[in-house]
Each structure stands twice: as C-alpha cells, then as structure tokens.
Amino acid sequence: MQDFFSWLGRTLGEIIRFVVDLLLVFFHSLGASVRNFFDALTSALGIPPTLISLGVLLLGLWLLYLALRALLRRRLVATLIWAVLGVTVLSWLIY
Fold first, then answer.
1. pLDDT tens figures, 43-56
2. Are residue 92 and residue 54 in the same domain, yes or no?
3. TM spans, by residue (predicted)?
4. Which of 4, 17, 44, 76 stands 20 to 30 A from 27 (CA)?
C-alpha cells in the first residue's frame, strides 16, 4: 500500500512539474514574440520603443478611426476635425 501512494505522489508531482514547465515555455515564447513585434513596429515607424510612444501611437490611430467612422456617416466637418487631430498626434511621434 505504501508503494502505491509513493508511486502516486511521484507521478502526480511529475505531471505538475510538466505542466508548470510547459506553461513557463509558453509564456516565455509569448513574451518574446510580443517584444519582437513591438521592436519591429517601433523601428519601422522610427519611434522609441516605450510605453508612452505606443500609447500615443494607439491614440493617433484611434483618432484616425474616428475620422473614418465620421466619413462613413457623411459628416465632413467631424471627419476633418478627427483626421487633423489624428495626423497631428501621429506627427508628434514620426518626425
């Protein structure tokens, strides 16, 4: 009986260890992929790879999206305002 529980504990420990190692490899690979994506994106745009720069980039793209939505609703004044704001924000990053 003692051998059975010893075997069961060892097997369960090996399974848990395998799952933990698998998750470590997965998250390490995921983190490296995200890091490489942002490094390539920022180098292609010529901006520094900081969180503030990426936040400003997302803000500028969001403003251009709002301009596109206004254009599809045939609101020309709103389209011009959102587009000018979006291009202005993006021009802060890309010089």
1. 888 888 888 988 99
2. yes
3. 12-30, 50-68, 75-94
4. 44
